[in-house]
Amino acid sequence: MNIQENVVNLIARVLEVTPEKINEDTAIGDIPSWDSLRHVTIIIELEKHFKVNFEPEIIMNMEDVSDIVAAIEERI
Amino acid sequence: MLESVVNQIFSKALLFPNKKALIEENKAISYSELASKILATKFALENDLNIKKGDRVIISANKQIGFVYAYFGAHLAGVIVVPVDFDTNQTRLQYIILKIKPALMIGFENPISNIMNIPIDYFDNLKGSSEINKEFPQIDEIADIVFTTGTTGDPKGVILKHRNIAASANNINIFIQNTSEDVELLALPVSHSFGLGRIRCVLSKGATLILLGSFTNVKKIFRIIETHGVTGFAMVPSSWAYIKKMSGTKIGKFSHLIKYIEIGSAPMPMEDKHLLIKLFPLTRICMHYGLTEASRSSFIEFNSQKDKLETVGKSTPNVLITIKDENGTDLPIGVEGEICVKGDSVTSGYWNDTKTTTDSFWSDSFRTGDWGVFDESGYLSLKSRKKEIINVGGKKVSPIEVEVVLVTYPGIKECACIGIEDPNQLLGEVIKAFIVLDDGINLNFNDVKKYVGEHLEAYKIPVVFETIPEIPKTSSGKIQRLILK
User: Fold this and answer.
1) Which residues of A53-63 are buried (b: 16+ CB within 10 A; e: fewer)?
2) Taking CB atoms and an 8 Å limit, are B427 and A37 in contact across chains?
3) What is residue B347's three-state secondary structure?
4) Touching check for A53 and chain B: CB below 8 Å?
5) Is B248 an interface residue toward A (CB < 8 Å)?
6) What is the interface pTM, i.e. ipTM, of the complex?
7) Hey, where are the domains in chain A?
8) Domain A3-75 falls in which CATH fold?
9) What is the pTM of this model?
């Protein structure tokens, strides 16, 4: 499984939706359950899963799935 | 003379017809368009949907322009609005339906059988109306019934008349010093009195309101502040914790634009108050204390009252707060007692619940159930909140509502829930569940969390679990949750 698939599956699990509902252009708020609490959970879970650390500057720039994938690719 | 908020919106449409009233994504609605949409909504409710004056409509409240049309269109038609969260659990929704017997439900994905249901965007595409023969609601007619979390677990329907909501908007605007030049970013739930109150404050003043889904995308918030010249926003302390976590102190670079911030609904750590003062030295940072029943009863402004930040400030303009003993007698300055609130902004009681209404007042002073004390300078200190209600990021949770779900899980014999400080420092409080297990049973609490999530909203899921041998109770069998704190 590549990074994008991993990210999509993780986000889908946190948001309690099927992975098919998420693609690289899906942005925060496109799915109603993607609220601030779930967003924090996604960040924490991503940090654990990929063993990376995101600075606030980077977190702020994560507006959609492709931003998240790019941030992870830069760190692993 | 006090006029209903919907009446004030129509006055603003005459004064500045082309001014932007609402902005959502790329859509902007002027005051004259807003007025004609509200009017068209009123006619649609009356003529197409056969809704009559005094009927109740439940609106699933999300931050959409359609909500604003439906809300004020209903008011103009003399219809009572019952706003509920778009993710309200089915048990709570069923309870509200039974209690208020709605004629119409707006914006629900899964309609309830035999109650008419229409989508929230039903009113978006109505042809606007410029019919001038309209009658505004009487100031003492009921505008809204807002359901709050009761201490017994069952929600209570707070009656808010047009007088209450108009007075409240006026009082808040006086304190915050809002003007028609303001541009406000709204990223709060509109089903709660705080978010809904902001809509009324902004539109009754003739200012501009930007509707945004939530605080989740902080970068988008910054972008909107910059491109629209936002002059103010409202938040709860957990929103601030979130903004800080996501972006550090970057928001400070907009301090020259932000004239006001309204904060409410939950206690805020002192270091956060000082950080806000540092980042926004010229902004009116106004924090309120209030309840749905007595909206924004007191206010403190951080920059001008920075030596009193441990208090909840002074009585809001046109509101009278007194401290009373258990017999309803006024107590002097310096003596602790129950905080009671009087004024046009205060509710007249609860829907179809005479007993709770009677028990909630000393004459015309509403009993908040909170305890506090005034100092010599008129500052009110909050000593204890209504017992046992848990405040998760500004959303109130009755422990009983969670406990009744938990005990239906196989293997759980008894339980009790309390609020504890959020270990992640984000939500203020989160729920901790104390569990007594059936003999010989071991449970995976992640499965229990999942189970609770199937029955209740996500913020009501306990974060911490602890198994204990027994739940402390009084001799009459009432759970002593405060002992578990």
Assistant:
1) ebebebbbbbb
2) yes
3) coil
4) no
5) yes
6) 0.74
7) 3-75
8) 1.10.1200
9) 0.85
